[in-house]
Design goal:
Layout lengths: L1 E3 L6 H19 L7 E3 L2 E3 L4 E5 L6 H12 L9 H14 L4 E5 L11 H13 L4 E6 L26 E3 L8 H16 L10 H4 L1 H8 L3 H17 L7 H6 L4 H14 L18
Helix pairs in contact: 2-3, 5-7, 5-8, 7-8
Length: 282
């Protein structure tokens, strides 16, 4: 599976939550598997999930090195790509790996020159490892991951082996979309530990929060976290609209909100003009 979407929409959060849920389920159902045991002369830990975040401009060797680091494999400094890969594949078998998540795949070197090498390496790993692979990144549909050299008719092995799923910003154009966004806000609000914060305050303001963040789960998390810190430092111990208005978040979200305010003649922080009304709970 390939999950493709722009930055800050929650791709990494999504796959990490799924991976955590899978491991928790397995620990509950088969706790005996998580006891260190002997396998083919090694003392190993059952490791159902592997999560790798790709460094910038990574090569196939860098990818194998990231796997080796996850497993804490004792490899010699001058180990070749093939030696690393063989050790990694052996470790995945010994540790019973079932899910492999490769995050930020766009950082792999997918240029016309190296793209085929990377794709061949991913194919080799998938062929020799009994695990489900999940890739995340952005602009992958037209990248070297799916198309060799950018040619639309030259589909790669990866494109023939993976389903593509798009992940975008939250929208609130329909009732279902509003409910989905409100549920995200509720989840974050439920995690607050502020002494005087009234539950439901942020849910009632979920439309305002969408305008502030553009529907980005990363921007929403930053906004609520920074507001909570301000509430603690000021001894207010509650997140209010006033506190939220004082928080400056990422540039993309801020520019989007400035544009929205100008279009709707909305002002705050003591400026003249129409104040943005609180949204009704969905």
């Amino acid at each position: 599976m390939v999950i493709d979407g722009p930055p800050t929409v929650g791709k990494s959060t999504l796959v990490k939550l799924f991976a955590a849920d899978l491991e928790k389920t397995l620990r509950r159902r088969e706790p005996h598997k998580f006891q260190p045991h002997e396998n083919d002369g090694y003392i190993v830990d059952y490791t159902p999930v592997v999560y790798i975040s790709i460094p910038s401009q990574a090569t196939p060797k860098d990818l194998s090195a990231a796997f080796a680091e996850w497993f804490n494999l004792p490899l010699r400094r001058a180990a070749t790509k093939n030696e690393m890969t063989d050790a990694v594949l052996r470790a995945t078998g010994l540790c019973g790996v079932q899910l492999i998540i490769i995050d930020d795949v766009h950082f792999l070197d997918l240029s016309a020159k190296e793209g085929k090498v990377v794709n061949d390496h991913l194919k080799y790993l998938a062929n020799h490892c009994a695990a489900t692979f999940v890739f995340t990144g952005h602009d992958l549909e037209t990248s070297g991951l799916f198309l060799e050299g950018g040619a639309s008719e030259r589909a790669t092995q990866t494109s023939g082996r993976n389903s593509l799923h798009k992940l975008g910003l939250f929208t609130i154009g329909t009732d279902d979309e509003r409910r989905a966004w409100a549920n995200v806000v509720k989840t974050m609000e439920d995690a607050l530990v502020l002494l005087d914060h009234k539950p439901g305050t942020l849910i009632r303001d979920h439309e305002y929060l969408h305008h502030r963040t553009g529907g980005s789960i990363a921007s929403l998390s930053l906004l609520i976290r920074e507001a909570a810190i301000r509430a603690v430092v000021s001894s207010e111990e509650a997140i209010t609209r006033k506190v939220l208005d004082q928080v400056v978040i990422d540039r993309r979200a801020t520019r989007g909100y400035d544009k929205f305010r100008k279009q709707h003649n909305i002002h705050h922080n003591g400026n003249p003009g129409r104040q943005e009304p609180p949204a009704e709970a969905s």
